[in-house]
Amino acid sequence: MTFHSSHQLRLIVLAFMIRLAPILVLFIPFGCSTPAPKDVPIAIVPDTLPRTSEQRVSEQYIYVQSDVSMDHYFEALDTLCDTLSNQYGTTLDEYALVHANPRLIDSLMAQDYYRAKSRGVRIENQRDCIILKAGDSLRIPSASEIMHIQELLSAVRIDVNIPEYTLRIWVRDSLVHQCLVRVGKNERKYLELAKHEVNLRTPIGEGHIIRIERDPLYMNPVDGHRYEGTWRDDGHYTGLPRIPFLEPEINSIRSGALIHPTTNRRTLGKAISNGCVGLSEADAWMVYYYAPLGTRVRFRYDLVGFDTTGKKVEFKDIYNLKSMKGGTSNDHLSN
Prior knowledge:
This protein has about 325 residues and is an alpha+beta fold. The protein folds into two domains: about 1-150, no CATH class; about 155-315, Beta Barrel (L,D-transpeptidase catalytic domain-like), CATH 2.40.440. The protein has helices at about 5-10, 55-60, 75-90, 95-100, 105-110, 115-120, 145-155, 280-290; strands spanning about 1-5, 45, 60-65, 70, 130, 135-140, 155-160, 165-170, 175-185, 190, 195-200, 205-215, 230, 235-240, 245-250, 260, 270-275, 275-280, 295-300, 305, 310-315. The radius of gyration is 21 Å and the shape is globular. The chain starts with a strand and ends in a 21-residue tail after the last strand.
C-alpha cells in the first residue's frame, strides 16, 4: 500500500497517459470576484497558437472566453463537454475533462473557507468565486485518454472506517487520498424529515454511489429547517458553498446517510452527525471527482488499525459494538 502526496494523488489517474501542458494557465484563486452575469453565454475559443503537426495531434487546447463563477461552474462544464464532444467526435464528460486538467481540483480545493482564511482571504459567498477566468486554457484529452481515465475511475473504491473517523480513496491497490471525517451519533432521535425516530449511527456495510446532487439544499433533518447561510467555527456568517453531496446505497438500502462537506471543521473526528459522513470542503471536492455514479463504497467498523509507522492502533468503540464480532449492520436512518 502506498500513500501518495497531495500533488501525486491528483496525478495517479493520469500517470499512464497524460503529459501536462507547459502553457496551462489555470490558477488557485486568492479571493472572489463578481460572478459572470447569467445572460452571458459560456463560450470557448479554439487554441490558435502556432504548433507543429505532431503537437496538434497529441495536444489540443481551448481558451475560456468569459469568467465562470461557482454559481455557474457545473453548467459551464456541461456546455463545454457537450460542445467538445460534438466538435471532436468523442464522449467527453466532466470527470475526464477535470482529470486532464488537475489544476482545476487544486483551484476548487483552495476555495475551502478555512484554507482561504489561512491565506488571509475571507470568502463571504463561495458561489461568487471565479473558478475559470477569461483566457484560462484547458487541455482536451484524446479519446484514448478519456477511456483510460474512465477505466481507472471505475476501479475507485471509497472506504470509511467509522471508529477511525477516516475516509480513504483507493484506485485499485493505490491509496490516493485520506482525510478526517465526522460520523453519526450513537443514539436514536425523532427526525422531522423522516417523520419517525431513527438510528443516527452511520450504517455499516457495502454499496455504491447512486445519486449525486451538484446543487444541494442544506436542511436540518431534526426540524426540517432549510439553511440559507452558515456560522463558521470562527463565528463568521457566510453563504453556503456549492459542493456536491453524494448518496451511497449501503446493503441495498437508501438510508439517507450521505457523504457531504461540513462548514464546521471542528466537528471532524467526532461522532456528531445525524448519520452522514461529513468532511472538509476541500476533501469533498477530492471525493466528488474520484467518485462518479456507481463508485463502490464501504462503511466499515474496524476497531484495530495501523498508524503511519505501521504500529497497531486500537480505536474507541463509539457504537459499543465490541461484543459483536466484526461489527454489525444497524437499522437505519434518514439524514
